[in-house]
Amino acid sequence: MTHTPTRSDFDQYMVPNYSPQKTIPVRGEGSRLWDQEGREYIDFAGGIAVNALGHCHPVLVNALKAQADKLWHLSNVYTNEPALELARTLVERTFADKVFLCSSGGEANEAALKLARRWAYNTHGEHKDKIISFRQSFHGRTFFTVSVGGQPKYAQGFGPVPGGIIHAEFNDLEAVRELMGDDTCAVMVEPMQGEGGILPADPEFLQGLRALCDEHDALLIFDEVQTGVGRSGTLFAYMQYGVTPDILSSAKSLGGGFPVGAMLTTDRIAPAMAIGTHGSTYGGNALASAVALAAVEHIDTPEVLEGVKRRHDLFREHLETINRKHGVFKEIRGMGLLIGAEMADEYEGRAKDILPLAIDEGLMALVAGPNVLRMAPSLVIPEADIAEGMARLERAIARLVASE
């Protein structure tokens, strides 16, 4: 007997930590999706900045199918060719000398934080354990990463948080300077805060963090889970800032939709993660590594990266046109194809109200907090889909304004 799943099945069978839309997509191609009733949508959400090449891109599909007939999973008792090729490719294209592969951004950040603490312990002793991060930051859902993240609501109700974690104001270098000391082991920062509202870092801020870390022999960790692998318009956002971190985390676009994460670091720091100090059951999985390798090689090309910058300008132009007509946004900001539109004062907190209206019009979008409409589409979204998606967004916003 066959059963067609419905939205009510979520409420019946799944833990209620999510509240998904009523629509259930069943098929995707490029920047378009179709639901169970065959209704079509344009995707400006990109799986929350994950589907970097859209849905079912042939480069990724072919990589997945080819590897599926060879080898899926071993264990970390063995290595495998796709994992080694992925690690080599990441090293050759970045500042890094060494790579740790895992399954998600939360895992990548967990590994980054553990590595920083372990390196400081080995190098300076147990007193050097303080981690500085930033209010409104987001670094994952493990207990360590959610504690380092600067949004207390995500840690509430789970008991005492780990010690040695301090939060400063993002883009406020003097606030960090006051907190830095010889007991600081690491500063963790997003080059552009994602969940915190699509806020790019000031270049002087990141340059200052680098200088402070050097002064206090602390490690600079860049969380590029959301900004990395082409999303910002370069392979990683640090390349635009001219600031090189000691550790970098990556996921989301890295797999183009397949679960995979990576932590990148240098030969100076990597030895601290010696045999037995950390692990990941699925990290370096041959299937995930093959897909991620194809994604990185396809995205890190002039054609794709220059296209991201061109599409950024198109998104901004369309949003400004909509705003001139309806006056719903205070500021439009972001980098590459991670774009945020902050709501005007009279629409404070109503970004989330746009999402169901957009769904009704055949468009999928996101929010970054209650006050920022977020867009993170495919890096290769056709310009015609941008235009049509914006027309649908304009209709949704017109309905929002009319409801006032």
Automatic annotation (TrEMBL):
GO terms for molecular function: transaminase activity. Keywords: Amino-acid biosynthesis, Aminotransferase, Arginine biosynthesis, Cytoplasm, Pyridoxal phosphate, Transferase. Signal peptide: none annotated. It is found in: Cytoplasm. Its EC number is 2.6.1.11. It comes from the Bacteria. Its main location: cytoplasm. PANTHER family: AMINOTRANSFERASE CLASS III, SUCCINYLORNITHINE TRANSAMINASE. May also have succinyldiaminopimelate aminotransferase activity, thus carrying out the corresponding step in lysine biosynthesis. This is Acetylornithine aminotransferase. It comes from Halomonas salina.
